Amino acid sequence: MRYLLVEDNESLAQAVSDRLSLAGHVVDHAPTLEQARHFMAIAGYDLILLDIMLPDGDGRNFLEAHRKQAGATPVIVLTARSEVSDRVGVLDLGADDYVTKPFDFAELEARCRAVLRRRGGGARNQRVLGDIAFDPLAGTLQIADRVIHLRNRELRLLEVFIAAPNQIFSKAKLVDRLFSYDADVSENAIEVYVARLRRHLAGSHVRIVTVRGLGYRLGTQ
Amino acid sequence: MTRAGPGTGSIRGRLMVLLLGGSAILALALFWVVQGFARQLAEESQDNILSASVTSILDAARIENGALVLDLPYSAFSMLANLHDDAVYYAIRADDTFLTGYDDLAAVPLPRADMPGFATRSFLDQDVRVVTAERALGPGGGQDSAPIRLSATLAQTRSGQEITLTRISRAAAAVGLGVFAGAAVLALAASRSAIAPLERLTLSVTRRGPQDLRPVTAPVPLEMVPLVAALNRFIGRLRGSLARSEDFIAEAAHRVRTPLATVRMQAEVTLQRVEREENRKSVREMIRAIDESSRAAGQLLDHAMVTFRADQLEETDLDLGAVTRDLTDRLRPTADLRDIALQARADDPVPIRGDAILVQNALRNVLDNAIKYAPEGSAVRITVTRQGEEGVVMLRDTGPGFPPDGMTRLRRRFQRGANVDGIVGSGLGLTIADEVMRAHGGTLDLRNNPDGGGACVSLRFPMA
Fold first, then answer.
1. Distance in angstroms (rounded) separating the CA atoms of residues B159 and B328
2. Which ipTM was obtained for this model?
């Protein structure tokens, strides 16, 4: 997926870019509306993440103009404003969704996924590894003719693995990706989801390998 | 609603009393003047006739052979005859010696010898007008004898005059009443036209929506211009101060949240890098603290905004079912993160009147709670139903439920249940929801599910 991130706060933008890249997405970062327009003119995007208060204007104007030009790319607004205080909500202006700062990255990802699913991500979203095809938007895993619907955490876990096959992920890092920070979760909780994924993957050539003392990795036989 | 100060009577009432009282006095005065004038005229004309009559009687007297000869002339009485058969009495005296007529009809003293004297008095139980005139007749008897002073007194009843007077009085009363009626109509019209601009101004101010803070531009009479100018200055000040507080709340939210977002993101990135367990633990603590403070800041500002807007609800027709469905759809990705299923079911349209943003915010706060406190992998059931005169959104989760003492305490600011350790919250969510519900004339109902655990929260709105 190709994302356009319009955000003037450099460190926030960097962090978001890193996280999205980690999940296998391509991110272009525009710190101003002017640059955003420039990016829009030369490349097509699957999703736009749009800040509201930018140094050269109001993101809402950009959003309105985008919708007026019948721009089909879905937009998720990143706002630091309280939803109660905005008389004209960004949803009324044509945004597909919005996330209030500061946001949980998992929530942003979930919202991106939901918006892309609504807009029909299509086949280009499929990730193929060995003999499995994984569609994170639809939440499906296809092995030969068998289609399995994954639950949310299984899906996110597989997404982490499939973005970097053969990379070893420690249990702690997987916990960070799967659980919110306000819940005290023991690292063993991850074993439940690994076990479930393993059951789903049974019968394919793809498997989750335990690396003693380090964690897990996704491998093909 | 604000009330005005105590009323000091009505302008219309005062105007009416003044105008009607004035015209009543004028009408009465007119009546008296006309009546008095008519009486005077009638009296004068009777006096003239009486005087002519008495003169003709005196003129008919003559001295013949030294003796007084008096033939009462017919014309003297015929000129007194009128339509009303007034009785006529007379008395002729010569040098105070009664000659003929009614002896007890006393003479009226004369103002001057050559002028008749008039009087109104009672005679034979009747109201009469009496005239007396005198004439000196040249010496009777011998040459040396003094002239005879002949005095004629004539009286006529006044019933004819009374009848005429009554007629004129009636006419005068009719005219007076007519004048009064005319004045009353004019007074009504005058007071109405004096009040009309006031009423128009009142209407144009009261008809405004709560958000309409434009200056008043309705045309008003010159006398009201200072009032409208003062009102407009006041509206201007109000608008300025409202805009400032709204801007302040929005700006404060922005200023607080943006840096927090950066810190949070950085912390998350750091967490990806650090390996040592104790470092990871402290970074997680940090993220949790950030979440706590950003949520508190956000809810505080939301709370301020809700309090601020509760006074001036921007009410529209809402379908409670649609509002709930939209919000549930929006929160589904968040619920998904914890594998919580949001099961929403709405009756046919449940129409309410409400401020869309506030209603959404109240719903969001209770739904956020349900998603936060429900166990992973469980379901939150949301139903929208009509219950009599109420539209009810009911949320049931299978979380820990409310502590036994919590139902009223949790509505208060910064109060959280004793059983929510480890879950980020500000303690303002239910306060905000409660405030929104009260602003809409509804109630926030907190209880625990009777069957098994979990909270059951109902938002009850009066139906539109």
1. 101
2. 0.81
What ranges make up the beta strands (E) of B8-65? 62-64
Global pTM value: 0.63
One-character DSSP codes across B212-225: --PPP-----GGGH
* Contact between residue A171 and residue A190 where contact means Cβ atoms under 8 Å apart: yes
Q: Is the peptide bond before A74 cis (omega within 30 degrees of 0)?
A: no
- First-last CA distance in chain A: 27
CA distance A158 to A207: 11
The pair of three-digit structure tokens given for residue B66, joined into one six-digit string: 């030294």
* Residue of chain B minimizing CA distance to A157: B337
Taking Cα atoms as reference points, which of B113, B117, B46 lies closest to residue B80?
B46
Residue in A85, A152, A153 closest to B246 by CB:
A85
In sequence order, what are the beta bridge partners of B119?
Answer: B130
pLDDT digits (tens, 9 = 90+) for B88-136: 888 988 888 888 888 888 888 888 878 888 888 888 888 888 999 888 8
Contacts of A81 in chain B (CB under 8 A): 250, 253-254
- Which structure tokens are listed for B5? 């100060």
Q: Is residue B130 within 8 Å of residue B123, measured between CB atoms? A: yes
Backbone φ/ψ region at B240: left (φ over 0), alpha (ψ -120 to 50), beta: alpha
pLDDT tens-place string over residues A136-155: 888 889 998 899 999 888 98
Would you give the end-to-end CA distance of chain B in angstroms?
A: 20
pLDDT at B458 over 90: yes
B317 beta partners: B353
Element (H, E) at A159: helix A152-163
Query: Rounded CA gap, B79 and B70, in Å?
Result: 18
pLDDT score recorded for residue B191: 84
Whether B244 has its CB under 8 Å from any CB of chain A: the answer is no
The whole-number average pLDDT for the span B35-49 is 86
- The C-alpha angle with vertex B384 and arms to B378 and B385, in degrees rounded to 5, equals 130
Q: Which residue of B has its CA nearest to A16?
A: B265
Mark out chain A residues that contact chain B at CB-CB < 8 A. 9, 11-12, 15-16, 18-19, 53, 80-87, 89, 97, 100-107, 110-111, 113-114, 151-153, 170, 172-173, 176, 180-184
Say how far apart CA B394 and CA B385 lie, in whole Å: 8
pLDDT computed for residue B381 by the predictor: 93
Window 123-182 of B: residues touching A by CB (8 A cutoff) are none
